Amino acid sequence: MRVSRRSLVALGLALALLTGACGGGSGGSSAADASPASASARAAAAEKQLAKNTLVPLEGAPPTPELPVTVDSSDGRQVTVEDASRILPLNGGVAEIVFTLGLGDRVVGRDITATFAEAKKLPQVTKAHDVSAESVLSLRPTVVLADTDTGPAEAIDQIRDAGVPVVVLDPATKLADVTTRTTRVAEALGVPEAGKALNKRMSDELAAARAAVPKGSKPKVAFLYMRGSAAVYLIGGKGSGADSLIEAAGAVDAGKGAGLDKPFTPITSEALVRARPDVILMMTKGLESVGGVDGLVKIPGIAETPAGMDRRVVDMEDGVLLGYGPRTPLVIDILVDRIHQR
């Protein structure tokens, strides 16, 4: 169920918030600027920004990389980066960081998960989620940014054997990983001060979003991962990635609260009864794959939950919800507003 837009007053406030809540250099809104009454305006501003599918880079001139640098790679290696003139991120969230740092004009290709507007015209170097070493090397990158999930391993080895520095990062699965990953990307590209500025901006935005959580509101939210065409029906638990977002938005992860200690567990009526979510959170394509809210409530056990009975379903675009990048504060703004509505 999509939450309708608020009043024209809220939308007017949203426009005013766009430069404060979503933009800026090391600034952005501070926690002191937020209040529970501003949650709808912040959410409307965030929705407007996400609908544009564009990024908001740091203010000012793009940073100039100071190289060479030697950094630790998550595959146990130390990697020396001498040239950041042709950057190739093999992860959508990492690409968002590179562009937001102001280095987008140096990016020469993209992973399939880099779906934001600035990256769309770049050549894609992955098929499904597998990296093509030949496609990567044809773009003559001077540095490649990957993560431990990037593969196949043979392709990464082939890129490295060709003399291209490959910096491997840990996957981002919780809110705290956003700043860690930003710091590591900025250091690898020789722009550590820009990384600090971006982390400061995101920290301010997150604080403002969280300050808008209504006092005393603590709904239980279940994250459901579904792909109806493949008969995949899972409920998130500890480590799903969504649990950190749900908690940051002032709610309780229903799966985690029900004792689900794995990231994902097949949905059963019994598991849903234990979880008793007040709100269901899903990716947009996942919700569409089961026929929207009407189809969702027909899945055994869903209709018997408080969320199912009230049809309280929140969905967000797949590439943004768990992207854990510079747009994550916008996700929290929207969740704070939607999951606390009654």
From TrEMBL:
Annotated ranges, domain Fe/B12 periplasmic-binding: 86-342
Signal peptide bounds: 1-31
Gene3D superfamilies, per the entry: Nitrogenase molybdenum iron protein domain
Keyword Phosphoprotein tagged: no
Residue span of region Disordered: 55-75
InterPro entries: ABC_Transporter_SBP, ABC_transptr_periplasmic_BD, TAT_signal
UniProt keywords, alphabetically: Signal
Protein family membership: Belongs to the bacterial solute-binding protein 8 family.
Protein name, UniProt field: ABC transporter substrate-binding protein
Lineage, broadest ranks: Bacteria, Bacillati, Actinomycetota, Actinomycetes, Kitasatosporales
